[in-house]
Amino acid sequence: MALTVDKLTNDERFSGDNVLQFLLYLPLGLVLMAFRIVLALILWIAAIILPNKSAVRQLLSTLACWTFGVYVKVKGNKDPRCSVLVANYVSCLDSLAAAHTLGTISLRKWKVPPFFASTLGIKNAAQFVRKQHFTESPSKPVLLQPEGGPTNGKGLLKFNDWSFPIGNRVQPIAITVERPFTNVTVHRPNDKIDVFPWWDALWFLWTPCSVYTLRALPALDRKDDNDQEFVDRMRQAIADALQVEATPWSLCEVSRARRTPAVARRAPPPAARRVQEVLPRVPLADIVRDLEKTRSVDVTITNFLEGITPYTPIPEPAVEPQPSTSQAPPKYVSPAPTGVFSKSAKERQMSFQEKKAQMIAEARQRYIEKHGLNVASKC
Question: What pLDDT, on a 0 to 100 scale, did the predictor assign at position 136?
Fold first, then answer.
């Protein structure tokens, strides 16, 4: 089955098949959570009182791993010449796993207390505005996760979230996580990127153990690549290591797909289907949103054709050419919105009527072929 954007996130916290195992572990998980909350309070007090030194930070990092039940395995070797490491996004505690074993700093936009951020190995991305900070004399390597947010690991999102320009040598890191005895989702997408996902962290306290595997891949040199080509090589290397697909979707599109079902239930389905029959390459979610504003099929079709409502066209599936004895009308492809209007309303109306007539003729021909009708052409 082909991977779709709605399959990149889990709708429920418990995503396993053995519900009985989940229920049997539930009381033990609550007791374990209570014990770890006490341990977290000790960690909080120690982070405030103890001095900010390397040995102390390592101790606090170890205590944080015990608190959240994080166990880390590293495969491969970190390249000492690389000041920038790029990894996929698994959960809110990726930074803790990487800081504890690789000694990295993760850049985040979260607004969290300084002692908590230091313990998890994170820094506020707004503090770093100069590229030279990490490319000339870095104190610690930086771990970047340009997906911008977590998924369920079935695919790799586009790399869009860059805190600063990358250098000419980068080491990819492939991160995976397993949870013995339970199959609980603790990597739900967070709509507010500047807020730490405390609810996700709470599920770490409940699960018995989270085993992280950090696979250090061979470092990549830029060579003659431009920025986009270099990013594509990094992303493909991580996707190959994880044995997943490098998807064409961004985190924004994943978040929008999670909200689509609720929007679709409020929209009139027959009207949306009528628009989609005329404009098959316009996403259903965009049709529904525009229909909620216009409450008119004709106005919505006009908005998409004239570029008033922008959208990203659905890619057309590859179709093998087949010989045909009858001359079919030329296939119409919905144009991408340009935002350029004709000079007069009459010209715009004529353009719309011509396009509409062509698409209706095409839809009629498809209906005839689908149902095998023998309809004689009118002279």
Answer: 42
Q: pLDDT-derived band of residue 281, with 50, 70 and 90 as boundaries? A: confident
- Give CA–CA dist 2/278, Å, rounded: 25
CA distance 164 to 103: 20
Tokens of 22: 């989940």
| Phi-psi category of residue 199: left, alpha or beta, with phi > 0 → left and psi -120 to 50 → alpha | alpha
* pLDDT for the residue 73: 93
DSSP character at residue 148: -
pLDDT of residue 334: 46
Would you say 151 and 234 are in contact if contact means Cβ atoms under 8 Å apart? no
pLDDT digits (tens, 9 = 90+) for 324-367: 545 544 444 444 444 444 555 555 555 566 767 777 777 777 76
CB 88 within 8 A of CB 213: no
Per residue in 106-131, pLDDT tens?
888 787 777 778 788 887 766 554 44
Q: Which residues contact residue 220 at a Cβ distance below 8 angstroms, ignoring those fewer than 6 apart?
A: 169, 170, 171, 172, 230, 233, 234, 237
Neighbouring CB atoms inside 10 A of 71's CB total: 16
User: Lowest-confidence range among 64-73, 159-168, 179-188, 272-281?
Assistant: 179-188
Please give the distance of CA 28 from its chain centroid, rounded to a whole number.
Answer: 33
Q: What pTM was computed for the model?
A: 0.64
User: What 3-state DSSP class applies to 270?
Assistant: helix
CA distances from residue 113 to 47, 48, 200 in whole angstroms, order as listed: 11, 10, 17
Distance between CA atoms of 87 and 76, rounded to whole angstroms?
A: 14
CA separation for the pair 319, 312 (Å, rounded): 21
- Using the 8-state DSSP alphabet, how is residue 344 labeled? S
At position 128, the amino acid (one-letter code) is: F
Question: Residue 66 and residue 39: Cα distance in Å, rounded?
Answer: 8
State the residue for tokens 């007090």.
45
303, 294 contact by CB (below 8 A)? yes
First to last CA, the chain: 46
| Cβ contact 32:203 at 8 Å | no
C-alpha distance from residue 228 to each of 62, 118, 200, 233, 248 (Å): 37, 32, 32, 9, 14
